[in-house]
Amino acid sequence: MKFKRASLLAGLVVPVLATPVLAHNFTIGKIAIGHPWTRETAATQSVGGGFLNIRNNGKTADRLVSASSPFAAEVQIHTMSMDGGVMKMRQLKDGITIPAGQTVELKPGGLHIMFIGLKQPFKKGGQIPAMLKFQKAGSVKVSFAVQPVGSAAPMEAGHAGH
User: Fold this and answer.
1) How far is Cα 54 from Cα 35, in angstroms, rounded to an integer?
2) Nearest 10 degrees: CA dihedral of 76, 81, 82, 84?
3) What is the mean pLDDT of each run of 10 residues along the chain (162 residues)?
4) How much is the pLDDT for 103?
5) How high is the pLDDT of residue 20?
6) For 25-140, which CATH superfamily applies?
7) Who's near 15: CB < 8 A, 6+ residues apart?
8) CA–CA distance from 18 to each of 15, 21, 24, 26, 41 (Å)?
9) What pTM did the predictor assign?
10) What is the rounded CA–CA span in Å between residue 94 and residue 54?
């Protein structure tokens, strides 16, 4: 009887413990990171973009100041903007401010993480580990889900419409 109860309890607890991984959300302090994703890359491609939402649930602003990944020689924080009818990308050396009580979206064509000097291609269905460092909240390990080429948003099960 005790074994059945322990098995039933384990069956209920394990899915709950696994939920954050399935939900693809990460937190550090008052910072919540939602749905990090990237696109699959070709074997000859040396760069890749990373996209996610960052919510600051705190009462003071914080700043994403850097990122790193074992899959890239360097990881930078970038923005894209129109300049004289030409789309230009530039590094944000001071990072990105995350205002108190607000969400900042890193997405294709705007703010994003740039993986530079890829050590291997990003393969559809894979996960790219990375570390994000915030000025106040500190560092948090995240995982970018690799989506098919041309994806505009995460396509994982349970993420439709996000």
Assistant:
1) 9
2) -60
3) 48 40 78 97 96 98 98 97 89 98 96 98 97 98 94 55 38
4) 98
5) 38
6) PCu(A)C copper chaperone (2.60.40.1890)
7) none
8) 5, 6, 10, 13, 28
9) 0.80
10) 17
**CA nearest neighbour of 154 among 32, 52, 25:** 52
Cα(22)–Cα(26) distance, integer angstroms: 11
* Three-state DSSP state, 17: helix
Instruction: Locate the domains of the chain by residue range.
Output: 25-140
Taking alpha carbons only, the member of 15, 41, 3 closest to residue 148 is 41
Listed as own residue / partner, the contacts of 154-159 with beta carbons closer than 8 Å and 24 or more positions apart are: 154/24, 154/35, 154/37, 156/24, 156/37, 158/22, 158/23, 159/24, 159/35
